[in-house]
Amino acid sequence: MSRPRIVIVGAGFAGYRTARTLSRLTQHKAEITLLNPTDYFLYLPLLPQVAAGILEPRRVTVSLSGTLPGVRLVLGEADGIDLDGHTVHYTDPEGGVGTLPYDRLVIAVGSVNKLLPIPGVAEHAHGFRGLPEALYLRDHVTRQMELAGDTKDAAARRTFVVVGAGYTGTEVAAHGQMYTDAQMRGRASREGGRPRWLLLDTAPRVLPEMDERLSRTADRVLRQRGVDVRMGTSVKEATHEGVLLTDGEFVETRTLVWCVGVRPDPLVEGVGQPLERGRLIVDPYLQVPGRPEVFACGDAAAVPDLNDPGSFTPMTAQHAWRHGQVAARNVAASLGIGDRRAYRHRDLGFVVDLGGAKAAANPLGVPLPGPLAGLVTRGYHLAAMPGNRVRVAADWLLESVLPRQAVQLGLVRSWSVPLDTASPELARVPGGPERRPAASAGEPARDRPGEEPAKSAASAEPAGNGGAVEPAKNQPGGEPAKNQPGGEPAKNQPGGEPARNPGPARAPAPDTAPVKRPDRPATPTEGDS
Fold this sequence. Notes:
There is one protein chain. The protein is α/β, with parallel strands linked by helices. It is 24% helix and 19% strand. The chain is built from 11 helices and 27 strands. The strands form 9 sheets. A 6-stranded mixed β-sheet has the order 5-2-1-9-22-21, covered by helices on one side. A 4-stranded parallel β-sheet has the order 13-12-11-17. The radius of gyration is 23 Å and the shape is globular. The model is unreliable at 436-516 and 518-529 (pLDDT under 50).
């Protein structure tokens, strides 16, 4: 008798935990397949430390094949799900297409950058949802600091704007200010003044979704460190020269980091099931109503909050991690292994790493002061990581006694990490397979860098993701300029990021999926994992 086939789509917090728990529960009694665009699990909470040069990129990644015994890894990006045919269609990293049949399906595709219809943001901002974006930001910030010493726009290059004062934005601004201050201390010339970081949000306080005491702690640390915290303020328009704020001020800058929150992966919308603000509605057992063989968890699922009837659990890593364990138990129970259980949670509190010995933490609801909060925060991350604990601790130790290495490697270009993408975990590469952008709310999909500029609606030629064509202008990576190693820097992108004309065009893979990843996004959903 053949073993039941379980397919898990996505290896974020929810998908990884589902696969790991199922591997333990089923004991080879089921065929478990994990479909993911990368071969690693990314520990997102430590991503700001990668951007700040504290941790090396591989420290925050955990090998899927190396830590999930009994789980078959398939590298690819899900294009569509046929619920009636019990199949998942995907495109592999080289443009090939494939199909995975299933008896049980777990949808854990996670989330992407939340977009707002603000002029210029899609062209001039970059998100912070994947490793390529963190690597890009580290190089970009380092480059701006180096270029500032020899240009007339030094003040603009030393000004960095972060939009979104949630968990991610707060940490990016806190670590960023420390990183650029450290670079200034090592320079012979300090002309141009201290680097300036702005943290903007329309909310009345920093970390609005968290306990007010954590908010006050974070706000105080940021201001003491020199971050210009502006609540009740956001971006009205972004240009190559800077950003126009909602209060009327124009801030000259070459860096705009977009951390306003997340929204479900656009793939969810194409499944054809009821949604709640872009998330698949599931019952307390994480099953899709009317589809007992389909489960959903993490940011892709609207999971009823049994502790607060009528509401759904928020889109956070903490919930996604615990969703995964419950989903695995219930999938196993549907195969006759163990008993199923409803998802209930207890708030474990939050920790926010503000760099150095500073942190804001309230484990189990108990607010902690000073260095103790920093110690608990790092201890929590070490305990929560499914691997690389010794390496991460070693990097922290070295960072505390040695100067930080501020060098730009130039591995990720601006056009490789557009804000408007359904795949923030993947950097665009010249000649790579075409991937659908995630269009902004209320807007059509834009021309992407390295593609042929969009033609009229009657145009029969699809835009390739690369080719012997000029990169689209006024897009991330925009019109190429000259005199940069490894590619020509874009003129119309904050920071003047290098961009290379991609290689020969590749024809888009044939569409075999009956339900495809949609061109327009799901309804924007608040969240900050």
